[in-house]
Amino acid sequence: MSELTAETAESRLEYLKSRGVEVETVEDRKAMMKEERTGGVAEVVRQLMSSKETDEKVEGTEFAFVPHDTSKPIRSVFLPSVANGSGDKLPAFVKPYFADSNSIDVNLLNEQATKQFSSGQLKGMDPSNISASAMNRVAAQGSVETFPLVHPGETNKFCGVYIYLDEVGLLKKLPPNLRASQIATSCGYAPPPNFYGDIFIGRVQTKPILSNVDFKVGEDTDPGSVWMRRAVQENVDWQQEMNKVTNRTGELQPNKDGEGGVAKEEEGYIWTQDGEEVEIVISFKEPVDKKKVNVKCKPKTLNVTYGGEQKLDLQLYAGIDVDGMAWTCGSDAAGHMLTITVEKAEEGVSWPRVTK
């Protein structure tokens, strides 16, 4: 009976891995703990500290490092041959890179926890059970999230491509990684997800065994690369297959805050956004006298007073085109309002929030 149970568990594990599902076993956790106890400078950090990729050639599986700073080049990093084997070894390998002393933003933590616990499988759970101190410990140790750019399947010889990112990058208020979002767009994600801070991209083959294989900088990071051109249809095929397995009619990406015409409410205002603009609406109890309105903006600040009274003083999440700012006042069935529209300096970038 025990043999049958063991075989069943092993078969299930292999089934999940062959379809690109990340599974961490007891052996994986033990290996990670052993690596953490060894101390010293982590191999991934040591490679990235080198001024040039050619300083010291490392034999192993190539993957890509994509800095959030677009002035810095995408670099090759190598998973040493001795570290590779069965399973995706990249999460454990890059984890030390994300370990730092940056503390998380408590307000963002509460906001994200409330959002996650208001729907889906987590609906009804108490977000207060997640503490800032616990999340800061996670940040200090490093925590890796895996995002599939393309799922493994027959058409790509069971090779999936994944982004490896700081799991609490949003809560640390790390800057957005525009190149990562652009790559996700090329793979069919619309609207593209937001990624925060530096990220890594690697390739995982799920058959005949789950293992890391080369993802080459230049050849595979080029927007016209073969895998990227085929990713859109392959992701559609994968989702359709998953819908059949789970008896779902289909899943759509959820709208981000302020998108899809759904206003996001903040203290003192509500806001919406599209690829080019952010619209901020302030409500009033009486009709707005435009002679009392004073709106001042700079590339990253917005200040609004009414009759000398401060209404908004915002440090904006990202830059705006000052010349593209406009405001109007009016009334409708919902009440009286002052509407301020600002143009994003970076078109196509989704803001996760209005303030920095």
Automatic annotation (TrEMBL):
Protein name (record): NudC domain-containing protein 1
Domain (CS) ranges: 264-355
Main location: cytoplasm
Record bears the keyword Coiled coil: no
GO cellular component, as recorded: cytoplasm; nucleus
Classification via Pfam families: CS
Tagged with keyword Membrane: no
Subcellular compartments: Cytoplasm; Nucleus
The organism of origin for this protein: Triparma verrucosa
Domain of life: Eukaryota
Keywords: Cytoplasm, Nucleus
Coiled-coil blocks: none
